[in-house]
Amino acid sequence: MGFTRETDHGTPPALVTGRNVTLTIDGEQVTLPEGTSIMRAASLSGGSIPKLCATDNVESFGSCRLCLVEVEGRAGYPASCTTPVAEGMVVRTQTERLKQLRRGVMELYISDHPLDCLTCAANGDCELQDQAGAVGLRDVRYGYDGATNMGQPKDQSNPYFDFDPSKCIVCSRCVRACDEVQGTFALTIEGMGFNSKIAASQNDSFLASDCVSCGACVQACPTASLIEKKVVETGTPDRAVVTTCAYCGVGCTFRAEMRGQELVRMVPWKDGKANRGHSCVKGRFAWGYAQHQERILSPMIRASVSEPWREVSWDEAIAHTASEFRRIQDKYGRLAVGGITSSRCTNEETFLVQKLIRQGFGNNNVDTCARVCHSPTGYGLKTTFGTSAGTQDFDSVEQADVILVIGANPTDAHPVFGSRMKQRLRPKNGKAGAKLIVIDPRRIDLVKSPHIAAEHHLPLRPGTNVALLTAMAHVVATEKLYDEAFIRTRCDWDEFQDWADFVSEASRSPEAIEPLTGVRAADLRAAARLYATGGNAAIYYGLGVTEHSQGSSTVMAIANLAMATGNIGREGVGVNPLRGQNNVQGACDMGSFPHEFSGYRHVSDAAVRETFEAAWGVTLDSEPGLRIPNMLDAATDGSFKGLFIQGEDILQSDPNTHHVAAGLAAMECVVVQDLFLNETANYAHVFLPGSTFLEKDGTFTNAERRIQMVRKVMAPLNGYGDWEVVQLVANAMGLGWNYTHPSQIMDEIAALTPTFAGVHYDRLEAEGSLQWPANDAAPDGTPTMHIDGFVRGKGKFVVTDYVPTDEKTGPRFPLLLTTGRILSHYNVGAQTRRTANTAWHPEDRLEIHPLDAENRGIKEGDWVSLKSRAGETTLRALITERVAPGVVYTTFHHPDTQANVITTDYSDWATNCPEYKVTAVQVGLSNGPSDWQEDYAEQARQSRRIMTVEAAE
Amino acid sequence: MAGAHDSDVMSTADRLVHMANQIARNLEAEGDARAVEMTADHIRQFWDPLMRQRIVQLALDRPGALSPIAAAAIERIAAA
After folding, report:
1. Cα distance from A550 to chain B (closest Cα, Å)?
2. What is the helix (H) or strand (E) element at residue A743, kind and residue range?
3. Could you tell me if A535 and A633 lie in one domain?
């Protein structure tokens, strides 16, 4: 069968009121929710009224006049997209008069549209073409001699899509998608009447405009006016497979539209509950890395990292890996080896890596990159609520009245959720927008963007989160803004009182801490009052909360505020960590931490251990293992010698690069399983080629605890899915695994993990997704947690004492550096740097306030050196008032910048999550790359050499 | 290359002492007795056996390096 798009019902679903109406459409009686448009009603009952300007991603507009219908008892021909159904209505969608009217409308459209259908990229996938067919257009009476909009130059500036104004029918679907769905307001209609044209920003090219390249406009375009370059190049797809994006923790689902084994385009899936049919530039467009020429497809080994790599067979690489780990354990002891699971890989793959370590290595030395991002979330929410995860689903934001964003930049780092948040922040259908509080050292885009202005932006000094949140608690407690009934039933009243006494001390008031945080006491008080009394209040936070020496305390301070104000346990409220990686929630759930099994159960729990011992047939270690930084310390001390790393680049992503490098260099066997020779691979002895998310089956779990299917759409270029590679290693170590499909791994996870007991592939296929816990107690999963009681029983108020970080500014290092991500790139950039996304961000830049720049004689674009106690690098300056004086900011997407040369090894007190967000630095003019950068580039070049094998005679 | 840089990275021993003190300091507001108990628990739950052995030894080797709460917690770990 041929390719079809998802059905477009023309207008969005009606707001839920619970009331239905019954009407007759073309003689058929149908019953539908009130508020539904006639167009949607007809579509839902199997019909299709011709349309051009309507699409169900955006509100109806009523401009094209193609969707006219007749309604008995009403004069004229109402547009079916803007006319709601009514009780007893009798609608006719196809009459002689309607046919005539529609043909007339179509004739006008086509008279100003090129008739190059056969060579047009949208041929076969064009709504204009389809509708011309549907209305029976046979002739265009107006000729082509008059004024036309044809023959205009194309705008091909965007790396992923073209804009051809000649093919535009000015339906404004792109403009509305940009406004309503994405919320960027980059497109406008310029001019009037026949001269109206779509323009990006003030007639900029698409690339130079405010456009964020989310592609919503391209998806909305009914012609070839906005079309993917890849479709122009390849042709239309012939099949579609629904799968889950492998970038951030939003977990957008897409239809991967294929022709044979070739991916033609990714189109967000409208039924996806995380993204609701939207996407960002990364998910929709930045997948070219999967076929990038730098991808390594053959296993490689080498005896020492000073040698070039030698390509070997899979058999040799696997046997070598197994024998090296056994050799090291024989020589240095059972605890001398460990592994790192990947938040980029599937739940099933992550589960297998930790199983390899616990069952095969016989220790608990397993950790995951959540160590460096959300481990404090795990600790903090488990302590206060009893579950190491966010409390809501994303839909919940639609019910929020107050949104508090702290230490997160959703429009860059979680763009699709950022757009959904913006939809709620703008007034819609007569409902006022939610009020916004932003707590962030930088003036992030959300603070002020088209039709959105934060009620309060508290630009705190980096490192003072706990002081600030405790001061908010001070206001809540002293002004008695707390929800006593909630606290008495859901928490321990005495514990609350202890906490309230603590936060109420004068030294913790907004006024007392103002000199510390730099936030005006009056603003802080107003923000606290709004949060406590503004209705449903939801907190969204990111790594600006966790990546601090008091990351865990900050998470608990957030939880305290939510409990004290009763903002937990229903829609529209809650504590929502925005997880960084596609499967970081899943990696944590799957037992990737050295102290716990899947489902967050401590390894010292004998009853839990016994279930795993029975299933795996070995005795398991009851002692916690090493966390990543502890592994590196043990390596430099000589007691840790072998590391299996699946899909993580610790050299670039972990703090204090010098220390990481020294740790890796001290090991005898470092195995890197990855798509590319990443920075860590410079120190590796074995390289096992990895597979992309397009090449294997499995599941990812997003920030909402939503487990979604990842489906294989093409064969792995490297020969194996990552789960198969781990199984080969395990079997070479004698573990006797025999999984033939990832579904069997999920069955094992379900059998061993109470919160996953109801998670099986057949259920996921049927439901589309499940939010854990999904078990007998919650067969359909759990969109909102802690509804009738906290998972731990009573919610726990934890006293969070502000302890300043040991990383202090002084005369040598007077500025504070904080780090973050940008929309077009993803973490270490291994993927996005290998796509056309570099068009937006070819290098990391240092954001610096004009005052600090002027004091140092720095001008826009100058090369500057960035020095901390840990190291030095250089990059170019970007002068901006987004950062406050005294604060500088950079991204860490490019290995030649290596922002983590600068970051220190201070970390969160409870979890060792690194303090990426606070580093004391000095900035000065520089001539170019530092010695470290030059040495590093040379070392990287040397260590990436691959021995070329002479062709056999 | 890494060695050529004059960074002030802590030694593993210094870092363990720093970590123990940091845990104790963050739990201090719970009151001394509870803070000692919670610090000891925390270290038992999250530090691997070799790290625990090492901090016990460091407590003996470096009197005064640990804060009173941290020192009392480590004593408990040593006694167990």
Report:
1. 8
2. helix A742-752
3. no
